[in-house]
Amino acid sequence: MTSRYAALSSALGVVGLIIAACVPNPERIPTVSTPATSVVPPELTGGAQVAPSPVPRVFAPVTAPAASPAASPAASPEALPPNRQPGVPEATGGGGPQAQPPTPSVRGEVLVSANHDERSLTVIELATARVVGNVALNDPAQSVALTADGTTALSTAAGPESRTVLVTDLQSLRTSGEIAVESQPYGIVAIPGTGLFAVTNRASNSVSIVDQAVSAARGSIAVGSEPTGLIARMLNGATRLFVANAGDGTVSIVDPTGMRVEGSVAVGGHPTRLAATADGSELFALRPDDATVVVIDPRAGQVKSSISVGVNPTDLAASPTGRYLYVSASDQNRNLWKVDLASLTPVANYNLAGSASGTAVSFGGDSNRLFLTTADGKVVYFDTTQERQTSSANTGRGPSGLAIGLFRGAGQ
After folding, report:
1. What are phi and psi of 75, to 5 degrees?
2. Which of 30, 192, 265, 399 could form a disulfide with 113 if both were Cys (CB 3.0 to 4.6 A apart)?
3. How far apart (Å, rounded) are the C-alpha atoms in residues 183 and 177?
4. Across-strand partners of 389?
């Protein structure tokens, strides 16, 4: 009898152990390995949603295939493009749903550089030399202009097949659309007081008048051969466009309201860029082929004189006072030249930004501060009174144009 009780007690103990083994221990759930066809966590499927199993399970770590750089969820600082700063917002020019970058906090004047080699725009707050953000584009950027409130940039898309102007919202740092123009758009300028822009189309020998508000061109005007740079200035009480035609050595004078050419001035060579005094009394055409600046009287429609300056000049800007002309140069020894407009002679030259070639030059609201972009991806602040570099900021690779304006975004 005793032996029967002992056997029964032993059997009950075994049953208890079996029951305990069948109840999950909340402190230790064994790992379950799964075949390759099992459910994979969303972070390894590019964000795709996978239906969960009806029975909760814990999966052992799954080794994902090596991702390509484009699909990498986060790039290390070493993997960032040249001149891209960690933490600086960046947006792309299209290609599907994207994360919305934070709205930048911008105050005062902004400088936007068109970075041809990097296919991007760089937005810089001038007062602090702070890079607010970089906007990636689908095409190389050649030139850029800003709306009157400084919140939108329009840039020409360079390339033999290009026929578009890209529109970029500087508040969200995103491209917001495209405007169709004619073949190979090159230069772009805002037409003051109209909300319109003028674009030179190098392969079409024309200028398109673009209405940014409706994202469309109003029409085009036939000008000289291979139009490149252009500016807008008052002439005899009305706004006129001056267009450099590199193919036939002329400067066209265009009435943007009447959509017609009023006249043409022969300057010779291959003019590519233009500048003018603030009052519009003198116009300057740059001929890089022979390092010459041609001085034009726009009211008379005649050439006054010419100035030999530098080596491989690239752009030019007249000081707001009308006293000096500054010429950037693709010369590692002297990338900026200063010309006295009273004597029409170069009076100084400078080697800025570590001997990098100068690509574009412009004044902002301060008449004593000049901005020079360089081929190695920088914008240099130059004090024209002290004749020295005072600051700099990074742009994208190969800046080819720049625009400066007063930012009047939300809350300002």
Report:
1. -90, 145
2. 399
3. 18
4. 382
The reply to whether 365 falls in a domain is yes
Please name the amino acid found at residue 223.
Answer: V
For the entire predicted model, the pTM comes to 0.76
Q: How many domains does the chain have?
A: 1
Q: How far apart are the first and last CA of the chain?
A: 98
Say if 117 falls within a structural domain. Answer: yes
- Contacts of residue 358, defined as CB under 8 A and 6 or more positions apart, other chains included, come to 314, 315, 328, 329, 330, 331, 335, 336, 352, 372, 373, 374, 375
Range of the domain at 367: 102-406
Q: Is the CB of residue 287 less than 8 Å from the CB of residue 293?
A: yes
Looking at the DSSP bridge assignments, the partners of residue 383 are 369, 388
Instruction: Find where tokens 């412009």 sit.
Output: 362
Give the angle subtended at the CA of 153 by the CAs of 150 and 154, to the nearest 5°: 140
3-state secondary structure (DSSP) of residue 201: strand
